[in-house]
Amino acid sequence: MAYSDKVIDHYSNPKNVGTLDKANKNVGTGLVGAPECGDVMRLQIEVDDATGIIKDAKFKTFGCGSAIASSSLATEWLKGKTVDQAVAIDNMDIVEELNLPPVKIHCSVLAEDAIKAAINDYRVKNGLEQLVFEEKGVH
Amino acid sequence: MLKLPVYLDNNATTPMDPRVLETMIPYFTENFGNAASRNHPFGWAAEEAVDYAREQVAQLIGADPKEIIFTSGATEGDNLAIKGVYEMYASKGNHIITVTTEHKAVLDTCKHIEKLGGEVTYLSVKEDGLIDIKDLEAAIKPTTILISIMYANNEVGVIQPIKEIAALAKKNGILFFSDATQAVGKIPVNVIADGIDLMTFTGHKMYGPKGIGALYVRRKNPRVKVTAQMDGGGHERGMRSGTLNVPGIVGFGKACELCRLEMEQDAKHTSVLRDKLENALCQIEESYVNGNKEHRLPHVANISFKHVEGEGLLMGFNKNIALSSGSACTSASLEPSYVLKALGLGDDLAHSSLRFGLSRFTTEEQIDYTIEQITNTVLKLRDMSPLWEMYKEGIDLNSIEWAHH
Fold first, then answer.
1. What is the DSSP string of B221-251?
2. Which of A41, A107, B53, B155 could form a disulfide with A67 if both were Cys (CB 3.0 to 4.6 A apart)?
3. Interchain CB distance below 8 Å, B334 and A60
4. pTM attached to this predicted model
5. A16 Cβ partners below 8 Å, 6+ apart?
6. How many CB atoms lie within 10 A of CB B178?
7. Model ipTM over 0.85
8. Model pLDDT for residues B123-177, shown as the tens digit of each residue
């Protein structure tokens, strides 16, 4: 299967690989997927107290090239957005941007799940209610 | 200068030996006759070439030329052997024994037999990929007519205890069929010494052309027959109709002859390089060789790199190195290799595996390059693997509640 140039670029030069301090209350961590399924993503956001803007985002991903590219792209998109704007990121935006084929759509869904899990982790840490999201069910 | 890409997927198919091609060429053009044309020189030339090739093929496996049925390849041979025996020996019973790590051509044919009302037992394998002969013994019933067990596995390269299986089959009056696609031409296979009744193999896994293979069908002690699965002109002693693929057969014959003459040299060459590759890659932390290392084809290695996903790994170098992975992220099912799972590997390790198949044309320079590329990619991907980070922090990955899809 041929990968799109954008997937290859993110795979070869992934953006924002790394780890933020989980203990920091401004950091939200989302860990989604399962080793048995061949995909695990950990995505972290760091939110600026004063502005509510995501000032940093990091990821680590175990998975195929499309999974790595989806999470790398997600961290790029997250930086500079408010948490509310981040909630609106849809997996199909990732599919479109990376030209993912149908068998790889689950990678984009996983990235969206990781974003939402990170946001909810941040919300819980800061005394807010968890947001309830609709199941995509495309995995 | 190293020429890229490097080809290390020889279990899928081998390049054709130029010496094979050379022998085939005249049979496309001037010697184009139909081997069944009995009354003119074109037919005679074709028939003569087929007879010669049949001897070359038979000699490689210690058979009589009359016991060789030409087919289109191993998949057809698997179908013809299993379905053909099932039909031919229906009055004796309807039970077949096979193994979970067989090729799909055997497994799916067995499923077909079950739909027809036959009974199939699928033996599991030990962690090293070999069957336990006691399991086989226990599975035998009065209705068992066929044991179908592959000679060597296509994914991990392990060689089954063929002689023991054959002895057990003989003792119980059961026919023994072996899919020897990966073994023939690579290691000594002798149908008499091994005690095999039916055996399939194919040209393109042994430096010959695609689209041509053979089914060995024993003629003595016992005399075995299979019911034809295609109706037609009654070629190949009535077991496989269809105009013979003369150029393919000529090439297959030559490939068999070359393998017979050069097997020892090829095996030594590939095993030295395979061992170099395997030893170097096993220097990487948390890497594991899959399958029995002792009873294994000389040119095959299957290695898992923990906490790195196979397809992601391949992507690091698959423009330059042709390999396959036990990860099936590309397939619609997303299921990792059923063979590796049958060996008891967790899905995570099965997803993390690479299969290497070397050939007589593999060079040390190619192996050195492969070692370097894979090592670098594994290390790079581990740097971005959350599982590797957790493992390094001493977190037990089994203690985490993963969100299964």
1. SS------SS-SS-TTTTTS-S---HHHHHH
2. A107
3. no
4. 0.93
5. A56, A57, A58, A59, A72, A75, A76, A79
6. 30
7. yes
8. 999 999 999 999 999 999 999 999 999 999 999 999 999 999 999 999 999 999 9
